[in-house]
Write a structure and sequence with these properties.
heterodimer; A: about 230 residues; 8 helices; B: mainly alpha; globular
Chain lengths: ~230, ~220
C-alpha cells in the first residue's frame, strides 16, 4: 500500500464526480438545460490531456539533457495516454454538440484547434513508428515533441480567441465564467478535474512501470556488464 | 566572423542550387503545373476561393521546395559540415536560403495566379507583403521539419505528415490577413494578428536554434 493514498483519492473523486455530476442540482441555463452536466465530464478530459502532454514535454526535455532512455519511455507513454484523453474529450464534446448545437461537427474554432492538436500527436506516433534505432527514435521524437508542444500551446490558446465561436464562454454564450460563479457546480467540477487527472496519471504510471520492466529486462546484459 | 560563416553557408547553398539547376527548374515546373491544375479544376473563382486556393498552393510549394533544403544533400556530407561549422549557423543559413527560395517561388505563383485565375486583388502591395511574411513562416517551419525528416532516414513523406498539422493554423492566419487585400472591409485587429504571426516565426526560429544541435549529434 506504499504511496497509494492518491489512488484511493482518485477513485473517491471520480466516483463522487460521476454520482454528484448526474444527481446534484445544476443551474437552469437557457438552451443548455441538463446538458450543462457535461461540464463535469468533458472539460476534465481536456485539462487532463493538457497536463499529460505537459508532462511528456518535460520528460522530453529531461531526455535531451541526460540521454537516459527511461525518460523517453515516460515521455511517450504520457503522450499516448494524453491522446487517449483527447479522444475521450472529443467524443464527449461532439456528443454534447449534437444536442446543443444540432450537429456533432460545426466548424467551431475550438473543435478545429483540438483536431489540429490531435493530428500533431498522431504525427508524433507515426514519426516514432518509422524509426527502429532506439536512441535515434528517442532523440528525434523528443525534439519533435518539444517543437510541436511549444508551437501548439500558443496556437490552441490564441486562435480560438480571435474567431467567434459557439462554444460556451465565447461570443456571449453562457459559459465557463457563468458556471464558475455557481458554488454548486464548483463543488463537483473541481473534484472532477482533480479525480480525472489522477486517473490519467495512474493509467500512465501503470504502463510506464510495465515498459520500464521490459526495458530493463531487454537491456539486462548492458546493466550487468557495467557492474 | 560569425557573419562571414553565415554568408559563406548561404553562398554555398546558392552555388549548389546553381549547379543543380534541374532541381530548381523542377520546382518551377511543379508550381506551373499546380497552378494550371487549379485553374483547370476551378476556372476563375470568386475572391474568397481564390485566396484559399492560393494558400493551399503555397503549402504544397513549401512541402516540395523547402523540404529539400536538408534532404537534398547526402547524409555523409552533414558529418563533414558538423566538423567545421556550428549547428546554429548551419540552421540559420538553411532558413535564410529557404526563405529566399520560397519568396522567389511564391512571387512566381502569385504572378501565375493573377494571370490564370483572375486578379481580384484590390491592394496588390499589401498582398505581396502578406505573401512575403507567409514565405518566411512556411520556410522556417518546413526547414526545421526537413532537418527532422533528414535524420529520420531521409523520409520525404514525413515532412507532409509532420508539417500539415503545424502549418494549418499558420495558413489560417495568413488567409485571414490576406482577405484585407482582396475585399476592402474593415478588419479590426489586423495588426494584432500580424504580430501574432511574426511572434510565432520568432518562436520557431528560437526553438530551432535550441533544438537543432540535438538533432545534429550522431
Amino acid at each position: 500500500m506504499r504511496k497509494s493514498w492518491w489512488k484511493v483519492a482518485c477513485v473517491v473523486l471520480v466516483a463522487y464526480s460521476i454520482i454528484g455530476g448526474l444527481l446534484m442540482q445544476v443551474p437552469r441555463q437557457h438552451i443548455l438545460n441538463e446538458t450543462i452536466r457535461n461540464l463535469y465530464f468533458h472539460v476534465p478530459m481536456w485539462f487532463t490531456m493538457i497536463l499529460l502532454f505537459t508532462g511528456a514535454f518535460i520528460y522530453a526535455i529531461k531526455y535531451l539533457r541526460t540521454g537516459r532512455l527511461e525518460y523517453d519511455i515516460n515521455s511517450v507513454i504520457l503522450t499516448k495516454v494524453g491522446i487517449f484523453f483527447s479522444l475521450l474529450g472529443m467524443v464527449t464534446g461532439m456528443e454534447w454538440a449534437r444536442f446543443t448545437w444540432g450537429a456533432a461537427w460545426s466548424n467551431d474554432p475550438k473543435q478545429l484547434g483540438t483536431a489540429i492538436c490531435m493530428l500533431i500527436y498522431f504525427a508524433y506516433l507515426i514519426l516514432r513508428g518509422g524509426l527502429s534505432d532506439e536512441e535515434k527514435r528517442a532523440k528525434i521524437s523528443a525534439v519533435y515533441n518539444i517543437f510541436a508542444f511549444a508551437l501548439m500551446i500558443p496556437l490552441i490558446w490564441v486562435l480560438p480567441r480571435m474567431v467567434d465561436s459557439l462554444h460556451p464562454g465565447n461570443g456571449g454564450n453562457p459559459g465557463f465564467n457563468a458556471y464558475d460563479l455557481d458554488a454548486r457546480m464548483r463543488a463537483v467540477f473541481y473534484p472532477a478535474v482533480l479525480g480525472w487527472f489522477l486517473l490519467g496519471l495512474w493509467i500512465s504510471t501503470l504502463i510506464i512501470r510495465i515498459e520500464l520492466i521490459r526495458f530493463r529486462k531487454e537491456n539486462d546484459f548492458i546493466l550487468n556488464s557495467n557492474k | 566572423m560569425a557573419n562571414s560563416r553565415l554568408t559563406t553557408l548561404i553562398y554555398k547553398d546558392l552555388v549548389l542550387e546553381w549547379r543543380q539547376k534541374h532541381t530548381f527548374y523542377g520546382v518551377l515546373l511543379y508550381v506551373g503545373a499546380t497552378v494550371f491544375l487549379v485553374y483547370m479544376m476551378s476556372g476563375q473563382p470568386e475572391a474568397k476561393i481564390w485566396n484559399a486556393l492560393f494558400w493551399i498552393t503555397q503549402l504544397f510549394i513549401a512541402v516540395n521546395s523547402v523540404a529539400k533544403s536538408f534532404l537534398q544533400e547526402h547524409p555523409n556530407r552533414f558529418r563533414y559540415y558538423y566538423t567545421i561549422v556550428k549547428p546554429v549557423h548551419f540552421l540559420l543559413a538553411k532558413m535564410v536560403y529557404s526563405t529566399a527560395l520560397m519568396a522567389a517561388v511564391s512571387a512566381i505563383a502569385l504572378a501565375l495566379f493573377n494571370i490564370m485565375l483572375g486578379a481580384p486583388l484590390v491592394q496588390l502591395g499589401l498582398f505581396i507583403a502578406v505573401t512575403a511574411v507567409g514565405s518566411i513562416s512556411l520556410a522556417v517551419i518546413f526547414t526545421f521539419l526537413s532537418a527532422i525528416a533528414a535524420r529520420a532516414q531521409n523520409n520525404a513523406a514525413l515532412i507532409a505528415i509532420l508539417g500539415f498539422p503545424l502549418a494549418t493554423p499558420i495558413l489560417m492566419i495568413l488567409s485571414k490577413l490576406a482577405v484585407k487585400a482582396i475585399v476592402p472591409v474593415y478588419q479590426p485587429g489586423w495588426w494584432k494578428l500580424m504580430l501574432v504571426l511574426l511572434a510565432l516565426d520568432i518562436l520557431v526560429i528560437i526553438l530551432g536554434i535550441i533544438l537543432f544541435p540535438f538533432l545534429w549529434q550522431e
